[in-house]
Amino acid sequence: MNRKIDILIVGLGPAGMVSAITAKKYYPDKSILVIKNVANGCIPCGIPYMFSSLKNPQDNILRTSALLKSNIEVVVDEVSEINRDRRSVSTKKGDEYIYEKLILATGSLPVIPKIPGVDKEGVYPIYKDMDYLKTCVEEIKKAKSVLIIGGGFIGIEFADEISRIAGVNVHLVEMLPRLLANSFDQEFSLLVEKKLKSKGVNIILNTRVVEITGDRKVEGVRFENGARLEVNNIILGIGAVPNTKLAADSGLDLGKGRGIWTDEYMRTVDPDIFAVGDCAGKRDFFTRKDATVMLASTATAEARIAGANLYQLKVVRENKGTIAIYSTYVDGLVLGSAGLTESAAKKEGFEIIIGQAEVVDKHPGNLPSANRIKMKLIFSKQSGIIMGGQVAGGMSAGEIINIIGMAIQKRVSLTELETLQMATHPYLTSAPTMYPIVLAAQSALSNM
User: Fold this and answer.
1) Residue 312 neighbours by CB under 8 Å, 6+ apart
2) What does the pLDDT look like over 136-146, one tens digit per residue?
3) SS3 of 165, please?
């Protein structure tokens, strides 16, 4: 079959979906087709919560009803080749689609470490395929002992969720000296470690798995120090790499971070091909160095830029760099990070000052469900511009980190944060006299 399509999107994760909806909004007369290679996709951020928090794993399915209502067509197939001269793609089912504009939203693939035995039955890389994940959930729930490899966001969220399953012993191994080492400073990493240990998770740091043992199925692992551990299943939470084979085979440039190179409007070196989400290269907001950030929030921001700029550039829609705003939840503890950590800023050679605060998130502090908020802000010493922030506490921390992210994006100064005007309410926020962002800014000001 040979078809002509105005806007063709390859991939239907969050980036592909938002690209399609945005494109339809800006170019309503254009035909839009999305090709996805998985029949039943899932919400990526919700994958860990399929094990316990969600009563039915199927509830984490990524629904495409919004696309169909917008007259956007969805096809289940896999693109095997891009012909840039013909402006067409070929699929494994033998179809060809000729496009005016092409958006690559091919996502990422899980990192599979080169460990002997990693291909044994019972080892689960995290693929964004609902049918595959349901099998994984069923298997883990029957296990006596599960090992999670990787102490980043994926690893700690899996550890938290699986620790809630009765009868399952949970172990987590991380090769670095602490958890969440790439996104938080040590004092915040220790909060997560303490929380997981209180739930019975066995945390093994500064250690690598060098062998997965067993015959056909996993029976255990051997660590680099010679110690052994018996486990029934292993989850690979090491991270992901951009899925760029299709782009590279068609001659599109890749960045040093291995993602597809794009300009500030998400255009590749081919002006008719855009790339968004995990497959697209990222550049740090401050240094413009290649970054390895893979977040659904970043992906959807890129998708809105691409969808709006397919045919005409909207000047205010450029991508100024990746701030890297993270948040996570571990048994009531919420942590958020945005921009540079103290250790990352010093490693890059920035001269910085630190502001810190610790307050209660309600006022008075003995109101029900009150939590302590721990905040750390990083500023440029010379200019006073905010460069990063970290927060830990209750549910309110999840939105406070977004305030910090906006402050970084707009290059807000220390004095502006010190005089921040905010809405407060006893049940919703800290007291106006003790607002954590303001206190942390004042703390930094005293260090200037």
Assistant:
1) none
2) 999 999 999 99
3) coil
Provide the 3-class DSSP secondary structure of residue 125. strand
CB 277 within 8 Å of CB 302? yes
Residue 364 structure tokens: 């008075």
| Token pair of 203 as six digits | 């945390």
Tokens of 270: 């081919």
Averaged over 52-66, what is the pLDDT? 92
Sorted by sequence, the CB contacts under 8 Å of residue 318 that are 6+ apart come out as 264, 265, 305
Pick from 103, 88, 114: which is nearest to 26 by CA? 103
Is the distance from CB of 204 to CB of 173 less than 8 angstroms? yes
Do 191 and 178 meet the contact criterion of CB atoms below 8 Å apart?
A: no
**Secondary structure of residue 43 in the 3-state scheme:** coil
Degrees, nearest 5: CA angle 110-304-260: 45
pLDDT at 319 over 80: no
**Domains recognised in the chain with CATH numbers:** 2-37+77-109+241-317 (3.50.50.60), 112-238 (3.50.50.60), 332-445 (3.30.390.30)
pTM summary value: 0.92
Q: How confident is the model at residue 82 (pLDDT cuts 50, 70, 90)?
A: very high
In one-letter notation, the amino acid at residue 412 is V
Length of the chain: 448
Nearest CA among 325, 300, 299 for reference residue 400:
325
Q: Enter the tokens of residue 88.
A: 């067409």
What would the two tokens of residue 152 be? 């980043």
Q: Are 373 and 425 in contact (CB under 8 A)?
A: no
Quote the CA–CA distance of 202 and 209 in Å, as a whole number: 15
Q: 121 phi and psi, to 5 degrees? A: -65, 135
CB 153 within 8 A of CB 172: no
Query: Tokens 């299709």 identify what position?
Result: 246
CA atoms of 208 and 223, how far apart (whole Å)? 6
What does the H/E/C string look like for 274-301?
A: EECHHHECEEECCCCCEECCCCHHHHHH
The pairing of strands 290-291 and 282-283 is antiparallel
For 368, list phi and psi in degrees, rounded to 5.
Answer: -55, 145
For residue 279, what is the DSSP state?
Answer: G
Q: In the beta sheet, which residues pair with residue 13?
A: none
Backbone phi and psi for residue 189, each to the nearest 5 degrees, phi listed first: -60, -40
